[in-house]
């Protein structure tokens, strides 16, 4: 080997030395790349372990994140972890104890109270009362139907030659010449429109009590009762638009067609919201035309907030009305709150 080197010229020796250096550098680069790859794999394994077993705050720590200079020591971390587990266990036991015994809510104070006193049985003459225990239960009386009978007495003058028979005046009734009293009508309407109890189910309740009321009669009572509420409806219309700020919108609704059994047609609920008084008015109209909102908003003065529907554009152009959010459907001016549910 040495003889071979001695036979080489100077240029050949330099070329051979450069070749050896390149080969050594290539090996160093390969080793460095392998070391980097091993470190990267170790970091990935550590990251996966943190995601599987670590605390939530440590699960997404970057693998190349530099440790803070004030990071706790491993002993301190173990101590903090033990304290954390003890604290969590205590809170969980305390929470379970509180949930398992929530306590009983007090009964409302506005309800009337019927007291039932119970004394021990036997001879108590040689004993003295040292206290008492109170147990409460919530009870109710079922709905009670009764007949209110008006008996009006008639009087005539003693002198038969004089005319003028007098009789006690009958109180004003909700349905003239009808048999339902105001309390019964209020209950029927509340059950139907507040508690969503259909009239045919209410009729079954009457039948259980031995009261036979035809379905058509019950339907007529509900209709006439609603007609009597018209004055309250007009008062609601007035109250809804008196504060000078109104939000309006319309929504389609399927309505049963009374002329075609089993079919429906599309009607519209026009909703008017007074956000100042938190008053909401629902007005049903069979169409989406202008007569409905024009009737409700007749005489309205102030701010009207709507979408870009053309019917509102005409109302918003009236004198004394400032139309808000009129350029596009769903747009609202800054600082104006939407209706609840929008």
List keywords for this structure.
342 residues, Nucleotidyltransferase, domain 5, two-stranded antiparallel ribbon, 9 helices, 7 strands, 40% helix, 12% strand, elongated
Quick summary:
The chain is an alpha/beta fold. The chain contains nine helices and seven strands. Helix 9 links the parallel strand 6 (302-305) and strand 7 (321-324).
Number of distinct helices: 9
Return the string of H and E elements.
Answer: HHHEEHHHHEEEHEHE
Please write the CATH class name of the domain at 241-324. Answer: Alpha Beta
Shape: elongated
Average pLDDT taken over every residue:
82
Radius of gyration: 44 Å
Strand order, sheet with most strands: 5-4-3-6-7
Helix content percent band? 40-55%
Distance between the termini: 93 Å
Beta-strand percent range = 5-15%
- Main sheet makeup: 5 strands, mixed
CATH topology of the domain at 241-324: Nucleotidyltransferase, domain 5
Total strand count, please? Answer: 7
CATH architecture annotation name of the domain at 241-324: 2-Layer Sandwich
Indicate the structural class: alpha/beta
CATH homologous superfamily annotation of the domain at 241-324: Ribonuclease H-like superfamily/Ribonuclease H
Low-confidence stretches: 329-342
């Amino acid at each position: 080997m040495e003889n071979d080197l001695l036979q080489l010229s100077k240029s050949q020796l330099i070329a051979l030395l450069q070749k050896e250096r390149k080969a050594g550098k290539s090996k160093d680069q390969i080793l460095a790349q392998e070391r980097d790859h091993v470190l990267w794999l170790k970091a990935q394994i550590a990251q996966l372990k943190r995601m599987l077993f670590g605390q939530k705050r440590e699960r997404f720590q970057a693998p190349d994140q530099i440790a803070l200079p004030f990071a706790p020591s491993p002993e301190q971390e173990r101590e903090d972890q033990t304290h954390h587990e003890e604290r969590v266990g205590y809170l969980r036991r305390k929470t379970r104890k509180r949930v398992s015994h929530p306590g009983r809510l007090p009964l409302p104070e506005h309800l009337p109270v019927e007291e039932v006193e119970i004394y021990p049985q036997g001879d108590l003459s040689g004993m003295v009362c040292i206290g008492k225990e109170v147990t409460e239960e919530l009870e109710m009386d079922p709905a009670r139907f009764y007949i209110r009978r008006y008996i009006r007495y008639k009087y005539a003058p003693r002198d038969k030659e004089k005319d003028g028979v007098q009789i006690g005046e009958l109180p004003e009734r909700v349905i003239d010449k009808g048999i339902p009293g105001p309390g019964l009508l209020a209950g029927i309407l509340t059950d139907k429109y507040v508690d969503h109890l259909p009239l045919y189910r209410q009729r079954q309740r009457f039948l259980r009590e031995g009261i036979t009321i035809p379905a058509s009669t019950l339907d007529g009572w509900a209709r006439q009762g609603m007609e009597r509420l018209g004055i309250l409806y007009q008062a609601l219309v007035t109250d809804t638009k008196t504060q000078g700020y109104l939000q309006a919108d319309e929504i389609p609704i399927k309505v049963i067609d009374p002329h075609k059994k089993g079919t429906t047609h599309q009607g519209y609920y026009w909703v008017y919201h007074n956000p100042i008084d938190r008053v909401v008015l629902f007005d049903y109209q069979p169409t989406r035309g202008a007569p409905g909102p024009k009737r409700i908003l007749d005489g309205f003065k102030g701010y009207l907030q709507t979408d870009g529907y053309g019917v509102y554009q005409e109302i918003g152009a009236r004198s004394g009305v400032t139309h808000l959010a009129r350029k596009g459907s769903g747009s609202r001016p800054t600082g104006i709150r939407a209706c609840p549910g929008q």
